[in-house]
Write a structure and sequence with these properties.
Distance between the termini: 71 Å
Oligomer: single chain
Order of helices and strands: HHEEHHHH
Number of helices: 6
Shape: elongated
Number of strands: 2
Largest sheet: 2 strands, antiparallel
Structural class: mainly alpha
């Protein structure tokens, strides 16, 4: 339908998304000669919204888009998952430095990890080796 209108009028489409999958799906079709990517961001200083034109870079897949500046996420999981993993990594680094990890804190982190990680998540092996096994040696 849009092609039929092309000779009669100018058609401009505006796509708004919060989906990294949509961004990855657009990659093969993005033409920098006619397409633009604009990012809406909150400016903490002015507390206003800024519209900033971005250079479109092909990132390959939805996970890469999710971890890009477009979505401001460090990881591909929920914010709760990211926060819990950061806390668990701090406990692991503490243990690796030879410092004791409070057993109550380790139990609390274990419970939080159970809420945000799947049972086959690769992080479990690192957690169990570093904190649980490490905790038994001291």
């Amino acid at each position: 339908m849009v092609q039929g209108l092309r000779s009669q009028t100018t058609v401009q489409l505006l796509l708004v998304t919060h989906s990294p999958l949509v961004m990855a799906s657009v990659e093969p079709h993005f033409d920098p000669n006619q397409d633009r990517w604009w990012d809406l961001d909150l400016n903490p200083g002015t507390r206003g919204v800024e519209l900033i034109q971005q250079d479109f870079t092909r990132l390959g897949d939805a996970n890469n888009w999710l971890r890009s500046e477009a979505f401001h996420q460090d990881d591909t999981g929920s914010l709760e998952r990211e926060e819990t993993l950061r806390a668990a990594r701090r406990a692991i680094r503490q243990r690796e430095r030879g410092e004791a990890v409070d057993s109550h804190e380790a139990q609390r982190l274990e419970q939080e990890l159970q809420k945000v990680l799947g049972s086959t998540d690769p992080f479990w092996s690192r957690w169990r080796f570093a904190v649980q096994q490490g905790g038994q040696r001291s």
